[in-house]
Task: inverse folding
């Protein structure tokens, strides 16, 4: 009864299709057994569509446990008995079937031409119309079972090193697709990138690039910004006349690999401890500011994920002046500056957490910085002084990233 119903269904399909197959009498002798098997199953001359469904069923039976040697003959039968514009298999199904059968020469030729002809929207629609019969998954499973045998066939075949390397890579890509594994994924990506580096102009390169995940590389140039506060220790004659308070400031930094350029401004607050006669009367209790602008260059000696240590040297100025900015203030003209503008110190950065944005990676940093700067007063060589400052700040650090073209 089941055979009768199946025959009626197939008869309806044949009657509804106006296209007839190419006469089987023109088939090569090697394909006649396949033609007889299909004819026996259908008991009629089927249309292309019916023939495709039937041959796909036979292919499924072969990859489940039949003789894989029959697969190339079944594929050849489809090519000879269907019109040139007919789509019988999705490309990846054909690749998996050829691999399972060990037909590595045909497989190599198919993959070498991948991307040259391309596919039209009409072909894509025909691919979607093909049965969802899990043919690719079945073929991939059979490839996994015969993997060692297939690798042996590839190794013994008369291929150039490029072809042999690619086919082994293709096998690595095909087998895990049915059961992805994060560890295998990393290994596959390493193999893909290695092949593209070794054979950038290969005919297989277009195919391999479809499996290459984007790789990003950070630029050598970096940039950062921080805000800091802390305190300072006055040196030389300055503690006699001045009292130091808290400070605040802002810093910019630009890097190239491990080299750093720092542009910073230190503004400290304090008072006059006792009167000082220096180009004017510095009266006791007068509020003053300590301004130490700086440009320095450092080299990062320690560059760990959790610590960066950078000694630096550079130039700076030490200016002491009244905190009031009023022009009518009688103390507005007071000014104490020091010569010998050299400075040196140590910059310590502790990364807190990483950041990532469009085209950029970086981190927030806890920044600790200590420096020293001293020299004689500009208009009185006997008045010497300087400052040791210690700052604690928080800032951001970033680098541009770009995609690496394999």
Result:
């Amino acid at each position: 009864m089941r055979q009768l119903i199946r025959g009626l269904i197939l008869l309806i399909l044949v009657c509804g299709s106006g296209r007839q197959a190419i006469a089987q009498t023109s088939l090569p002798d090697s394909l006649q057994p396949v033609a007889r098997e299909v004819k026996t199953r259908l008991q009629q001359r089927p249309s292309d569509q019916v023939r495709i469904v039937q041959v796909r069923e036979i292919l499924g039976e072969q990859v489940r446990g039949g003789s894989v040697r029959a697969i190339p003959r079944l594929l050849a039968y489809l090519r000879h008995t269907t019109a040139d514009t007919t789509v019988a298999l999705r490309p990846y199904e054909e690749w998996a079937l050829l691999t399972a059968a060990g037909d590595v020469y045909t497989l190599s030729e198919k993959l070498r031409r991948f991307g040259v002809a391309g596919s039209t929207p009409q072909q894509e629609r025909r691919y979607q119309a093909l049965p969802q019969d899990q043919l690719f998954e079945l073929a991939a499973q059979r490839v996994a079972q015969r993997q060692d045998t297939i690798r042996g066939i590839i190794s013994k075949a008369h291929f150039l090193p490029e072809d042999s390397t690619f086919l082994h890579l293709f096998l690595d890509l095909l087998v895990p697709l049915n059961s992805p594994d994060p560890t295998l994924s990393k290994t596959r990506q390493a193999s893909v990138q290695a092949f593209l580096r070794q054979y950038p102009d290969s005919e297989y390169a277009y195919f391999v690039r479809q499996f290459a995940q984007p790789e990003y590389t950070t630029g050598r140039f970096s940039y950062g910004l921080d805000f800091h506060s802390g305190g300072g220790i006055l040196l030389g004659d300055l503690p006699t006349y001045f009292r130091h308070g808290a400070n605040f400031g802002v810093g910019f930094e630009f890097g190239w690999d491990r080299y750093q350029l720092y542009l910073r401004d230190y503004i400290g607050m304090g008072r006059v401890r006792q009167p000082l006669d220096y180009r004017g009367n510095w009266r006791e209790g007068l509020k003053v500011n300590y301004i130490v602008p700086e440009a320095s260059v450092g080299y990062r000696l320690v560059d760990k994920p959790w610590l960066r240590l950078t000694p630096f040297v550079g130039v700076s100025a030490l200016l002491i002046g009244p905190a009031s900015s009023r022009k009518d203030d009688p103390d507005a003209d007071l000014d104490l500056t020091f010569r010998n503008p050299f400075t040196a110190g140590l910059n310590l950065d502790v990364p807190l957490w990483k950041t990532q944005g469009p085209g950029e990676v970086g981190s927030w940093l806890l920044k600790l910085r200590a420096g020293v700067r001293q020299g004689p007063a500009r208009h009185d060589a006997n008045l010497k002084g300087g400052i040791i400052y210690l700052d604690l700040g928080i800032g951001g650090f970033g680098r541009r990233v770009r995609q690496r073209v394999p």
About this structure: The longest strand covers residues 380-404. Residues 1-25 have pLDDT under 50 and may be disordered. DSSP finds 13 helices and 13 strands in the chain.
